[in-house]
TrEMBL record:
Keywords: 2Fe-2S, DNA-binding, Iron, Iron-sulfur, Metal-binding. Coiled coil: none annotated. It comes from the Bacteria. This is MerR family transcriptional regulator, redox-sensitive transcriptional activator SoxR. The keyword Iron applies. Residues 4-72 form the HTH merR-type domain. The keyword Iron-sulfur applies. InterPro entries: DNA-bd_dom_put_sf (IPR009061), MerR-type_HTH_dom (IPR000551), MerR_fam (IPR047057), Redox-sen_tscrpt-act_SoxR (IPR010211). Transmembrane segments: none annotated. GO terms for molecular function: 2 iron, 2 sulfur cluster binding; DNA binding; DNA-binding transcription factor activity. GO terms for biological process: response to oxidative stress.
């Protein structure tokens, strides 16, 4: 028989509903073993995995992104500090990139608030770095109309 926590135990320890834990299981976030009776048995490391998922979701990461990162952790044993540090570095890089993008957007927004022109020539929000010019001349946003 596989030892470990029942899904009810895990729900009580994480504050998640049993249905939420099953949902996370379908996304590969946790992968319980089965005991002789066929019941799910979770490891103590799954408490931390689920806590990590809840924290990462609050930071705006999608479940697919989170699952991608967690695939780098050992499946049925407690991840080491080095494992978590590696995962954390990946998230940190993404958070830093988001902060940079939001800072850039915030700085460009100053000129646009109250303007509303959405000019292809001068609006950094509508046409950042003049990316539309690289697509060629003419009404590039309507190209789907000419087949
Ligand atoms: S809306 Fe006018 S410059 Fe962006």
């Amino acid at each position: 028989m596989a030892a470990g926590l029942s899904i009810g135990d895990l729900a009580a320890r994480t504050g998640l509903a049993v249905s939420a834990i099953r949902f996370y299981e379908t996304h590969g976030i946790v992968a319980p073993l089965r005991n002789a009776g066929g019941h799910r048995r979770y490891g103590r490391a799954d408490i931390r995995r689920l806590s990590f998922v809840m924290a990462a979701q609050k930071l705006g990461f999608s479940l697919d992104e989170i699952a991608d990162h967690l695939r780098g952790l050992p499946a049925h044993k407690a991840p080491s500090k080095a494992d978590w540090t590696r995962i954390s570095k990946g998230f940190r890089r993404k958070i830093d990139a988001r902060i940079a993008a939001l800072t850039d957007l915030r700085d460009k927004l100053d000129g646009c608030i109250g303007c509303g022109c959405l000019s292809l020539q001068s609006c950094a929000l509508y046409n950042p770095a003049d990316v539309k010019s690289a697509e060629g001349t003419g009404p590039r946003n309507l190209t789907g109309l000419d087949g």
